[in-house]
């Protein structure tokens, strides 16, 4: 059964918790302005503080909805839909930038982030349609059209062979969260929390000057395994628990290994990435999940432009040194071993 990305927002007296990857323990509800909406196939919210917050959150929402229209893979009027028809396609500057970024990240991650995986993702029923287990032959046939190096961008023109199709699912929300943050800042907001289906961007600190508290969801149960204290950064989690279906007792998750064309089944349950930009976090969280624990650690040691928290099937957490003292296990998970990854 398809499990939609679960975002539940619990409002308590002084506590707002958004469970996907994240839970923000808030403050100063009096001056908080918040908008909630559905876009990019998930629940989203923008919370901001200050005098200009009300107007700014509406403009940020408009921006995300505008990008959703441009980047939807299923909307026949979107620019990505036009690109997926093949040939030389002229797109807007921001769509060209999104595609260039996806190609750049595909290269950086050795193709574990694979922007052209759409036909395979679709065959498993993860983007519209019924969930099903495609045959090995069907997957091999579809994989012939997969490969980010088949796509090129020059200025605002995208060149893509017929049959090759982009999927913005792994990066679009992160990219849109950065754009929403720009809109908020341009409109005078210096304290805000953007949550686009678990893609979090934190602008500044909380209004009281303290760090935001962002919970990392328990991939195997309800609630959180721990809390990250942070300000002015983006935080994104990828995990198979977000969308999956079960056939004959086997759970098939929505993140696909581009080599096999099958859902990832490795040693990681979820990976949370913390960095300055949402787009980098989103691209990396998906790619690191595909890489597995050792590959993800190697990638971190090579680049060091992000921090991460991996929750693994061995019941342990693996946390990079730059975030280790900002991550605290939840009471219920106080026994969990936290390994600090050093450079
Ligand atoms: P995320 O939730 O950001 O980890 O992205 C997962 C979504 O990206 C899936 O629902 C698919 O639409 C798509 N996807 C799945 N596997 C990959 C992959 N290896 N590379 C790029 N996109 C993927
Ligand atoms: Mg992602």
Notes on the protein architecture:
Helix 1 runs antiparallel to helix 6 (172-186) and helix 6 (172-186) crosses helix 7. The chain starts with 7 loop residues before the first strand and ends with a strand. The model is unreliable at 1-25 (pLDDT under 50). A nine-stranded mixed β-sheet has the order 3-4-8-9-12-17-18-19-21. With 343 residues, the chain is of the alpha+beta class. The chain has a domain at 9-19 and 32-47 and 192-341: Roll (T-fold). The longest helix has 26 residues, at 278-303. The protein is built from eight helices and 21 strands. The structure holds adenosine monophosphate (AMP) and magnesium ion. Magnesium ion binds next to helix 7.
* Side-by-side strand order of the widest sheet: 3-4-8-9-12-17-18-19-21
Q: Level of helix content?
A: 25-40%
Oligomeric organization of the protein chains:
single chain
The total strand number stands at 21
Structural class, by secondary structure, is alpha+beta
User: How many DSSP H or I helices?
Assistant: 8
The largest sheet is: 9 strands, mixed
Keywords, please?
343 residues; alpha+beta; T-fold; nine-stranded mixed β-sheet; three-stranded antiparallel β-sheet; 21 strands; 29% helix; 29% strand; globular; binds adenosine monophosphate; binds magnesium ion
